[in-house]
């Protein structure tokens, strides 16, 4: 992804971005570092994660499609393909290039998504502050976070989908909602953003996203009718496809917390609890939007989606990147900085234990580190919703602040229509 040059001149007429060359060098450096770290870990583990477990499942599913089969009939080490048929079509360029080249190319693209997200958020919230130094610092700070590192090592699509959503909603263009619809067609989790757009009065963008999503379903039925019937007929709700038989159901959603903490007889309570969290979270997101805190509303919406989804892995929390960048860009005071530091630690501390587990340096079972981490993420998600609501009660509408502190207005089809 090419990062656009800054639009707001800095002191002395210089652009704060320092030019395309500086941005390119910094993003390449960040990418090389991330790719090198991922390859180092992947080369030293004998697990099914080489060269990226999730990417290997994507490749296998796409290979089955190219061979005339169904992506839902393949399984690698007990892990099956759990995305819509449209995603299998999107992944068809992977098998022809081979696993090693595919993993390198995928990791480079995903690693470049990190500075892209940093740039998008800073440019939206504080366009007068973005530049190569901030881009480099922001990228270096968020790359070690466990959801980011986990996504890069596993070869998951999370970072790329996040970029699609942020580009669609934060950059001015005429076809607002198309990229959100495409992202939802690849993986269903961005569907919550479609609901957010409709609830906040952005009917045109919301309908565009919904029609685009339905279009991806239509493409799936046109090109893969059998696989589409399988997925939309129930395979898409089959949680057993996301883990080998007999493996415990981990998850950092409300459902995961209920499965971890409550006896089996109480497990059905996860559905009404999730509905309650979903209603409350979307209400806070809409409230933020009405206060012209658009990025806050989007992040609250996404966190709500992570909490109410039946299956949310720790790698899905890559949305911690725009969250942290947003908090830093607001120029917090002493207490705010400590809160940001604590939030960073929550997302960063699991990484050493995760690496220890992957490399097999100590006999640490997956249950011993995954369960506490994912429960922590569930509690953190709930705390973020409460914190956002508390902040919205304390502050006035965004227009009351000084012009320089207000985020750049989102235009061209994003306004309420």
From TrEMBL:
Protein localization: Cell membrane
Report one GO cellular component: plasma membrane
Q: Which residues cross the membrane?
A: 21-42, 103-122, 134-167, 179-199, 211-235, 269-288, 295-319, 339-362, 374-392
The lineage's top-level taxon is Bacteria
Predominant place of localization:
membrane
* Region entry Disordered, spans: 397-417
- This chain's protein is named Alpha-1,2-mannosyltransferase
């Amino acid at each position: 992804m090419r990062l656009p040059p800054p639009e707001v001149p800095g002191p002395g007429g210089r652009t704060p971005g320092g030019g395309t060359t500086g941005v390119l060098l910094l993003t390449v450096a960040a990418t090389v570092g991330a790719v090198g770290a991922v390859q180092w870990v992947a080369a030293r583990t004998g697990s099914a994660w080489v060269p990226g477990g999730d990417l290997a499942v994507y490749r296998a599913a796409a290979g089955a499609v190219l061979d005339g089969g169904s992506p839902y009939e393949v399984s690698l080490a007990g892990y099956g393909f759990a995305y819509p048929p449209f995603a299998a079509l999107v992944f068809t360029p992977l098998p022809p290039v081979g696993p090693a080249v595919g993993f390198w190319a995928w990791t480079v693209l995903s690693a470049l998504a990190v500075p892209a997200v940093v740039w998008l958020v800073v440019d939206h919230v504080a366009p007068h502050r973005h530049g190569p130094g901030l881009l480099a610092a922001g990228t270096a700070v968020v790359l070690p976070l466990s959801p980011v590192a986990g996504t890069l090592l596993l070869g998951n699509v999370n970072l790329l989908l996040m970029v699609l959503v942020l580009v669609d909603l934060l950059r001015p263009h005429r076809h607002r909602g198309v990229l959100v619809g495409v992202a939802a067609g690849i993986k269903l989790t961005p569907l919550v953003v479609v609901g957010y757009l409709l609830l906040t009065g952005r009917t045109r963008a919301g309908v565009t996203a919904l029609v685009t999503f339905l279009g991806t379903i239509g493409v799936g039925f046109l090109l893969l009718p059998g696989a589409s019937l399988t997925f939309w007929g129930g395979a898409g709700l089959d949680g057993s496809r996301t883990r080998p038989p007999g493996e415990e159901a981990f998850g950092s959603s409300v459902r995961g917390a209920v499965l971890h903490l409550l006896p089996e007889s109480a497990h059905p309570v996860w559905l009404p609890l999730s509905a309650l969290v979903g209603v409350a979270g979307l209400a806070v997101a809409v409230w933020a939007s009405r206060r012209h805190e658009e990025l806050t509303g989007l992040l609250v919406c996404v966190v709500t989606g992570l909490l109410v989804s039946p299956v949310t892995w720790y790698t899905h929390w890559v949305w911690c990147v725009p969250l942290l960048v947003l908090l830093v860009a607001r120029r917090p005071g002493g207490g705010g900085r400590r809160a940001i530091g604590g939030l960073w630690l929550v997302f960063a501390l699991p990484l050493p234990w995760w690496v220890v587990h992957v490399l097999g340096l100590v006999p640490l079972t997956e249950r011993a580190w995954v369960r506490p981490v994912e429960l922590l993420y569930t509690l953190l998600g709930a705390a973020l919703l409460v914190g956002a609501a508390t902040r919205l009660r304390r502050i006035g509408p965004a227009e009351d602040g000084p012009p320089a502190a207000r985020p750049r207005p989102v235009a061209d089809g994003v306004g309420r229509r």
